[in-house]
Design brief:
The complex is a heterodimer of chains A (176) and B (249).
Chain A (H helix, E strand, L loop, with lengths): L4 H24 L2 H17 L10 H23 L5 H9 L7 H13 L2 H11 L5 H8 L3 H20 L3 H8 L2
Helix pairs in contact in A: 1-2, 1-3, 2-3, 4-5, 5-8, 6-8, 7-8
Chain B lengths: L8 H8 L5 H13 L1 H21 L9 H13 L4 H22 L10 H20 L5 H12 L14 E8 L4 E7 L5 E8 L5 E7 L2 E7 L3 E8 L2 H13 L5
Antiparallel strand pairs in B: 1-2, 2-3, 3-6, 4-5, 5-6
Helix pairs in contact in B: 2-3, 4-5
The chains are: A mainly alpha (176), B alpha+beta (249).
Chain lengths: 176, 249
């Protein structure tokens, strides 16, 4: 059996990878970019393993590293004037989504992509990762009231974007 | 002017997420019976939330890139203060992850090799029945004693109190040379760890049977089948704490 904390860390890290990859893909909206992000996250986590105080919090700890890396990447790309091509997003999800539902998937993903990072983050933590409000508050280091208000705003905005006619729909409608 | 009771946006979403007090949640449920606008609004938000899981949930079932495993293995090899054990666990971790991809696809397709799971579920059922009958609690020392009697001195009963789970009982299953350890949280949700000698192969699987999650975490010496009605995330947190806490070293 596992005798030391270092061993347990590696096993726990390995066990988290599938879920972390899913979270990154949903957050970033592009499979290849998400995989790069997770690879960077693994390398940073291995270097900073000693900073993890409680092994059972490794999921949140890894997501924190991932968030920081993602924000750094966004800032760097903004400085470089790089724009994200939504076609990349469409291509990434075409692989995993049934064809009949493809258009609505793109609309949902497009709506999600219009949200701020903080709003996407909290939607995914609660809606995808299944964290309760207290767990989210601990992970994001904010009061639980902030979690509630941020989540409410995020969902309102997502709904608003979903109810707005999409460019895809307008394009389709305007075709002869 | 509406005389509808005021429901804040925060309350509405807390209701959707099951975070509202039972009394207030019942108020909103009752209100939805005659407030169609409110009911539709809640349904739309619930649909959006469900869509996230529908779209992204299955992404966790993809096999993990081998490059990530190599990164972890390389890091393990650099830590040479205990090389044999380090490498052994790196290999175990790699094998475990490779298995994750393959086995999660068969979540709803039980096979012969899931005999361990079937035995663990049966043992859990018996154990929970006994616990309901006796309502026992146990100390970690007593549970560890039971575990060591069956599985040897290198294993101890894990302490899951950090995640809110209290040890209830540890029971030997002599005919299987196994032990079940039962835990309960504050809401009386059960989490069971079924321990037995490993057949000698590494394995890590997360299975789902209805509302029940099953995590099989096995190395060359010990097999741990962990069972509970919970989310995948909660199971992973509990399983990680339990697995790390099994070592007596």
């Amino acid at each position: 059996m596992t005798a030391g904390r270092g061993d347990a860390f590696t096993v726990a890290l390995t066990a988290q990878l599938s879920g972390l990859r899913r979270y990154a893909t949903a957050l970033v909206g592009n499979g290849a970019a998400a995989d790069d992000l997770v690879q960077d996250c693994i390398e940073r986590a291995l270097k900073q393993a000693a900073k993890l105080e409680e092994l059972q919090r490794i999921g949140g700890w890894l997501r924190s590293i991932l968030h920081n890396l993602y924000i750094d990447d966004l800032r760097r790309r903004r400085r470089q004037g790089v724009k994200v091509d939504l076609a990349d997003v469409e291509n990434s999800f075409a692989v995993v989504t049934p064809a009949r539902d493809h258009a609505s998937v793109i609309d949902f993903e497009r709506a999600l992509a219009t949200l701020t990072f903080e709003h996407r983050q909290i939607l995914l933590l609660v809606g995808l990762e299944g964290l309760n409000y207290q767990e989210v508050a601990v992970e994001l280091k904010v009061p639980i009231g902030t979690v509630m208000s941020r989540l409410a705003r995020a969902r309102e905005r997502l709904r608003g974007e979903m109810e707005r006619p999409s460019q895809r729909t307008l394009d389709t409608d305007s075709r002869p | 002017m509406s005389d509808r009771p005021q429901i804040s946006d925060e309350e509405l979403h807390a209701y959707i997420d099951g975070e509202l007090s039972p009394v207030r949640a019942a108020d909103i449920t009752a209100l939805c019976q005659y407030d169609r606008e409110l009911a539709l609004k809640i349904a739309a938000f619930q649909a959006d939330k469900a869509r996230l899981v529908e779209l992204y949930g299955s992404l966790a079932e993809r096999p993990v890139p081998a490059a990530w495993l190599h990164t972890i293995e390389r890091a393990q090899r650099r830590n040479t203060f205990r090389p044999s054990r380090q490498i052994m666990y790196a290999i175990a971790a790699s094998l475990a992850l490779l298995i994750v991809g393959a086995t999660t696809y068969r979540m709803v397709k039980p096979s012969d090799e899931d005999a361990t799971v079937a035995i663990a579920l049966a043992a859990r059922h018996d154990s929970l029945m006994m616990a309901d009958a006796t309502g026992t609690g146990a100390t970690l020392d007593a549970a560890t004693h039971t575990v060591r009697d069956v599985l040897g001195p290198a294993i101890k009963a894990p302490d899951l109190s950090k995640l809110g789970y209290t040890l209830m009982a540890a029971r030997a299953v002599p005919e299987r040379k196994a032990v079940t350890i039962d835990y309960r949280d504050g809401q009386n949700h059960a989490f069971t760890v079924y321990l037995s000698h490993s057949p000698g192969t590494e394995r890590f699987d997360m299975l789902r049977r209805g509302a029940t999650r099953i995590c099989i975490w096995q190395d060359e010496e010990l097999s741990a089948v962990m069972v509970g009605e919970m989310s995948a995330g909660e199971m992973l947190r509990l399983a990680t704490l339990a697995y790390a806490g099994l070592s007596a070293g």
